[in-house]
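User:
Hi there, any thoughts?
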Amino acid sequence: MLRTRASFAVMTLVAALAAAAQVQAVPWEKHMTDGNIFQNQGRYLEAEQAFLRALAEAEQPAQVAAASNNLAAIHNYLGRYQEAERFARRAVGIWEKVHAKDHPDLAVALNNLAGACYNQGRNGEAERFFLRALNINIKTLGDGDPETARVRKNLAEVYSATRRYPEAERLYQQVRVARETNAGPQSPQVAEVLNDIATLRHKQGRTAEAAALLERALAIWEKTVGPAHPSWALSAANLGSIHARLGRHSVAGQLFERAIPVLETALGPEHPDLGAILGEYARVLRNLHRKNEAKQAEARSKAIFEKAVNENTVARHTIDVRDVRTAR
């Protein structure tokens, strides 16, 4: 199973201050700044606490919306999809009252709401919200804007998850070109879309191409955010999945062993993605005849998924390689 991540948008301090220009609440400003820094570093649990403090300090509707939007993004990253949806709907409701119907702030919140729906397996709703956000961004920011690319990438994930591969391919390539132009070919933004294209290639049975794309993504992550970042870890786990699929269990095990501690720190020990990765790691361990360790990984994976099912936080758009005919 290869994993993609919808790209969630937190409001930067400049945008948030512009939205909340009616009052300058210094504590709110500081907490928003801290949260943005933590989020960019992949320190999502710390970002959550900073944005919660910002929400507590918010005095104006726009400040509440900005903090709620950012909490929606963080909860999406942390696998708390119902909470993400709740915060995103709150932000959307405020922006619809504060702004015109085609304001970029509304598009940011719609993107995060769509991501929460997608992560709960509600692809039809997700597509509608992503399309609405995309149309707003194209109209107000332009077709080549980074925020337009963000939403377009997320819409491509919906198409990939629903096996509309030609549509996903078209959007992913548009995003890749836009990000190479805006941020450079060795940027984290490009690494993110390379990971997603690799996932699409794996679904199409083009495993060698998928592996090459993931190697490129990992090299970029190494140079930019470093191997302690969860984005690096997710790409490493994806590459581990491919090596396991090809019978290269020793290499796969090494990648999983580097990725898992990073994800535990950044996402918490009960994230659904971590549960899936532990399940794959357990199968690798069995092939390496490390049965006791395999049992431990299996038990952790099972416990995470049981909790996720009870809380309705399983990302149901992910599909195990054993459930499809083409390699993934």
Remarks:
- The two ends are 6 Å apart (CA to CA).
- The longest helix spans residues 291-310.
